Each structure stands twice: as structure tokens, then as C-alpha cells.
Amino acid sequence: MRAIKQLIRFGYEQALSCIFPVIIFASLAITKFIEIPFLPRYDLLLIICLVTQVFMIASGLETKKELVVITLFHIIGLTLEIFKVNMGSWVYPEEAYTKFFGVPLYSGFMYASVASYLCQAWRRLDVRLVKWPSIFLAGPLAAAIYLNFFTHHYWLDIRWWLSALVLIIFLRAWVDYKVGNKRYRMPIVLSFFLIGIFIWIAENIATFFQAWEYPNQAEVWSMVHLGKVSSWLLLVIVSFLIVAMLKQSQAKIEGMLEGNSQGAIRSKS
One Pfam family this chain carries (predicted)? Predict the structure, then answer.
């Protein structure tokens, strides 16, 4: 019974962390069947995303510090989308006023929602990193993975080499998290894989509701090729590494400020 209770509690915390992604996917489904006159669907989705973001901050579900991370992911995702669409990797078939180089601005929120999930799950589950590699290894690896999404169109696709590097560098790393009063551990590589699988499932839902479409889905919808899991896995790794580095930097800064304030108090006394 305790195990079942812990599983339910874990699911509840995960559900709270997924509010932003859930709203986006629910909006994709609803706007597929409900139209507003003179307001294109992609523009409506952008309004929903903006309202949701304001709600997340106003309600305290997200903090202002987390908003900085989420905004960074919005920019990273939108940049990738513009490049990929113009390389013919996929298209956004519907018209919109808020399309920029063929990419509707709401698409950046899909990447931002992944960052929202990571930030909230990190805070709610009190995530700690065990045997985490140096920033001098994790930082360049994250940059190389992100750049490969662009460079493989002109050069070699080295995703499998990068995946092998991930296994080597993170083989001994664990993510330590708290459910209730008990702490658990999971190999970090396993957590990357699980998040990647769930995002691939979400991608199938999104393409079914024509959030975007791949060339082979132009005539009739079909499942996204399982090979795309590798792309999402690498994107999840980039996302996790960026959030981890920002969280660690934030913790160091707060620790320094706390140490300075305590030193000032002792000197006054």
C-alpha cells in the first residue's frame, strides 16, 4: 500500500509539473474542431499560450526565475523551428498573422513547455544531481548536440557519436528525487530516455491535430517514425543540461550571497 501511495503522490507531482504542456495539447485538440471567425488557429494558439504563461506566473505555479529559463527555451526552440522549416524538415500548413519565416510564434511555447516541466518537476521533487560531470564536459556536449541539429544538413550527422558520448560521460550520474518523505534514485541516462519517449508520444498527438506535419503526413496522418526518438532524446538532454547548469549556477550565487550576508552579520556583532 505504501508503494501505491508513493506512486500516486509521484504521479500527482508530475501532473502538476505538466500543466503547461497539457494546456497546449488540449488547445491543439480543441482548436482543431472549434473555429473563431477572422482569427486563424495558430494565432488563437499563441493567445492561449500567452494567457497560460501569465496565469502560471500570477498563480505562483512558476517563479520569475523559472520564467527566465522558459524564455531562453522559447528562443532556442523558435530558432530551431525556423531553420528546420526552411530546410523542409516539416511544415506548418495553416495560415496565420503571427507566422515568422513560415513558423507560427506559438511553436516556441512547445519547447518552453518542456522547460516548464523540467523546472517545476525539479522544484517539486527536490531534484539533486549525484556524480554530475563537470560543466567543462556537460557544457560543450550540450552545445555540440544542439549544433548538430543544424550542421547535419550540410555535414555528417554525428548524433550516434554524441549519444555514445552521453553514455560515457553520464554513465555514473544519478538523479536523486524526493516523493513525500522518502528519496529515490534513477540513472540519469534512463531519465533522459523516458522523457524522450513521452515527448515522442506527445509529438504523435501534436501531428495528429496538425500542429505541424512531416512530409510523409501531407496526404494522410501516420505515426511519427520511431527513429525520431533519438532526436527528441538528444533535445531532452540539451534541455536537461541547460536547466541543470542554470540551477547549479543559481545555487552557487545564492550560496555566495548567503555566505556574504552571514559574514557581514558576524562582523557587525
Answer: DUF817
